[in-house]
Specification:
Length: 515
């Protein structure tokens, strides 16, 4: 039997404009450049350049015939042309000073929006806008792969072994190690040879070993293609130009006493290798200069390169805050398309009008989203400086406990907005570059009842480790006792967690050889 039932339910749906605002807020400055370029390529109504003072108003564009599918939605939104991204460039600093943005909020007819959502916003592709891939700004792994393949093809290897070596290189893991089985490579080669010049050839384990041996001996970086850390170190030592006695000691230490090397058992090594403390120290200096992950060699420079999103400059006791918009051009709506619509709308067919209005909305949302991102970032930085003024006045010392919800309350925004805004962002100050997240620390109390941030505790812990006796380093329990003497009640497990976050190994691995 057919029945008609009436139900009521709550559904949370986000406007494409809100989704775009959230996405732009989450990305760092250098990734924003790629996004702006993509939007400029895809939307003909968006172009570079500041808004002209003599541009006509766009009321006519926003108040269109009622037969337009976007008309009611567009009419409910203020003109984007009054809030274009405009900026004044400082050539010396490469900084764009933020322009004032309107506080006027958009109002939407929600029932109408939900009713027409599928028809009006399908072309905006809001689903793809919710996520962005910023990992492709630079791909050091592919550069290393290309370098390895090029070295193989420039070698004097037979063409068959080049074919084998290519398969080995394609099987390396992200650290540059070969962790597969030789038999699997041979089976793969038997499948991939079909349709190639080697179709009639038979691939064997000997072919694999010959190609891998060539990679170990001739291909850079040294150690690439090693099966494990031990083989990686041995390859680098063998190919290195070291004094013969030092090289033989290092090879013997790695080959026969690898566990003693890993655990820094200096006395046992000196006895087993029949060497002096000076020679043992030279061996460890040699080992410390080797690359434990040859596949990461090209990634080191990229990881150390930071583009700050915000610049803070001190001036007469106050602080000037600038958004680093060196990578973001000024944007505006294309006047040619706007004039074409306003002056010839009677001659335009319905599809053309719909296309222009849809792209007009996209340009408006994108411009407003960048302005909103700028406003939010500046407000968050102002709130951080207000609460961490002692840190900025003392050139990076005395960081106070601070939570994201505290800043959110100051700027009257949600905590999730603050969290999204500070993620993967950096601020450049007169005394260094800092991760924005580093300003948010949990609270701990001293024995006197004063609040102290965990960052300050890490600073004291680092000072303890750097000042310790390297012949007898402090254990986590001993460092916990030292911190208690300073009035800081920090448990041993907490000390261990902070030590690991500072990239310091356990006590026995921090030992050094005595003179």
């Amino acid at each position: 039997m057919l029945r008609q039932i009436q139900t009521q339910k709550q559904v949370q749906k986000l406007l494409p404009k809100i989704v775009l605002n959230q996405n732009l807020l989450a990305i760092p400055a250098i990734a924003l450049d790629n996004l702006v370029k993509r939007e400029l390529e895809q939307n003909p109504l968006l172009e570079e350049g500041p808004e002209s003072e003599n541009e006509p108003t766009d009321d006519a564009l926003l108040n269109e015939e009622k037969d337009q599918p976007n008309e009611d939605f567009v009419r409910d939104n203020p003109s984007p042309l009054e809030s274009s991204v405009d900026a004044t460039a400082n050539e010396e600093e490469g900084i764009l000073f933020p322009a004032e943005t309107s506080d006027k909020k958009d109002e939407y007819d929600w029932d109408e929006y939900f009713q027409n959502e599928a028809e009006e916003y399908k072309s905006y592709d809001a689903g793809e806008e919710t996520t962005f891939d910023y990992g492709n700004i630079s791909d050091p792994g592919s550069k290393l792969h290309e370098s390895l393949i090029l070295q193989i093809h420039l070698s004097d290897l037979p063409r068959k072994l080049i074919f084998v070596a290519e398969e080995i290189i394609n099987s390396l893991d992200e650290d540059g190690f070969f962790t597969d089985e030789a038999e699997n490579i041979v089976l793969d080669l038997e499948e991939k040879k079909i349709g190639t010049e080697f179709e009639s050839e038979k691939f064997t384990i000997d072919d694999f070993n010959s190609a891998l041996q060539y990679i170990h001996k001739e291909v850079d970086p040294p150690g690439i293609g090693a099966r494990n850390l031990k083989e990686n170190l041995l390859i680098q030592i063998e190919r290195g130009k070291y004094e013969s006695r030092l090289k033989s000691l290092a090879i013997e230490a790695i080959t026969d006493h690898f566990q003693d090397i890993k655990n820094k058992r200096f006395e046992r090594l000196e006895k087993e290798l029949k060497t002096t403390p000076d020679e043992m120290r030279s061996v460890f200096e040699l080992l410390h200069g080797l690359n434990p992950k040859p596949g990461y060699e090209d990634a080191f420079d990229l990881e150390n390169y930071i583009v700050p999103d915000i610049i803070v400059k001190s001036r007469d006791g106050s602080f000037d805050i600038f958004l680093n918009e060196k990578f973001t051009p000024s944007l505006r709506v294309n006047s040619a398309y706007r004039d074409m619509y306003l002056n010839n709308k009677k001659d335009l067919d319905k599809d053309t009008k719909t296309y222009l209005l849809n792209n007009f909305n996209k340009a408006k949302w994108f411009i407003d989203a960048i302005n909103s991102r700028r406003d939010t970032m500046i407000k968050i930085m102002e709130a951080i400086i207000k609460r961490q003024k002692e840190f900025f006045n003392s050139n990076g010392e005395n960081l106070k406990p601070l939570l994201e919800k505290d800043v959110a309350e100051d700027i009257k925004m949600d905590t999730s907005t603050v969290s999204r805004a500070v993620k993967n962002k950096y601020v450049q100050t007169d005394f260094g570059i800092y991760d924005l997240r580093s300003f948010f620390t949990s609270t701990m109390q001293t024995s006197a009842g004063d609040d102290i941030s965990n960052t300050e505790i890490k600073v004291k812990l680092k000072a303890l480790i750097e000042a310790e006796n390297k012949l007898n380093p402090l254990t986590d329990l001993e460092m916990s006792a030292e911190l208690r003497k300073m009035g800081l009640q920090v448990a041993r497990r907490t000390v261990a967690k902070y030590r690991e976050s500072l990239d310091f190994p356990i006590a026995k691995l921090r030992r050094e050889i005595s003179d």
